[in-house]
Amino acid sequence: MFELMPFDRTARLMNRFFDDIGREYMSREPMGFKTDIKDRGESVLLEAELPGFSKEDISIDVNAGTLTVKAEHKSENEEKKENYIRRERSYGSFVRSFNIDGIDTEAIKASYNNGVLSLELPKVKEVVPEVKKIAIE
Fold first, then answer.
1. Cα–Cα distance for residue pair 2/47, rounded to 1 Å
2. Distance (Å, whole) CA 59 – CA 82
3. How many CA within 13 A on the CB side of residue 128?
4. Tell me: the pLDDT tens digits for 33-58?
5. Over the stretch 44-102, which tens digit does the pLDDT of each residue have?
6. Under a CB-based contact definition with an 8 Å cutoff, are residues 94 and 50 in contact?
7. What is the pTM of this model?
């Protein structure tokens, strides 16, 4: 009727699943962030979700055909009362890199509004060879 999986196999699968999740979240590597990339014909619009960051926390670099967006913030909160001291620290770092071959890097424009970084990436204009007539003498 119904096929049942033995308990030990199920347990191993579940343990592997949770081990993979733990490895993902416990990694020391900076995490990425969600992006939307839209082709608008003459340009590409890249929108990155970076809620909770200020404009000063975000850096955008272009190097050898790669655009790198990095957002990093640090905050500390200390509260002292009669019998205790509470101190909280939070650090966050997000990094993503994008291949921008075919983009005019000198004309890139960036804006940041309501937690969304928008990058307008104009495409390099194709150079059409000029047709030239040569007169025969």
1. 48
2. 41
3. 3
4. 899 999 999 999 999 999 888 899 99
5. 999 999 988 889 999 999 999 999 999 987 777 777 777 767 767 667 788 999 999 99
6. yes
7. 0.63
Which residue reads 């926390």 in tokens? 57
Under DSSP, the state recorded for 17 is H
SS3 53: coil
Strand 43-49 relative to strand 35-39, pairing: antiparallel
Per-residue DSSP letter, 128: P
CA distances from 120 to 39, 74, 98 (A): 10, 28, 13
Q: CA–CA separation, 113 vs 50, rounded Å?
A: 10
What is the CA 35 to chain-centroid distance, rounded?
Answer: 6
Between CA 26 and CA 129 the distance in angstroms is: 54
Which ranges of the chain would DSSP assign to H, the alpha helix? 7-26
Sheet containing 35-39: give its strands across: 35-39, 43-49, 116-122, 109-113
Rounded to an integer, what distance in angstroms lies between the CA atom of residue 94 and that of residue 51? 11
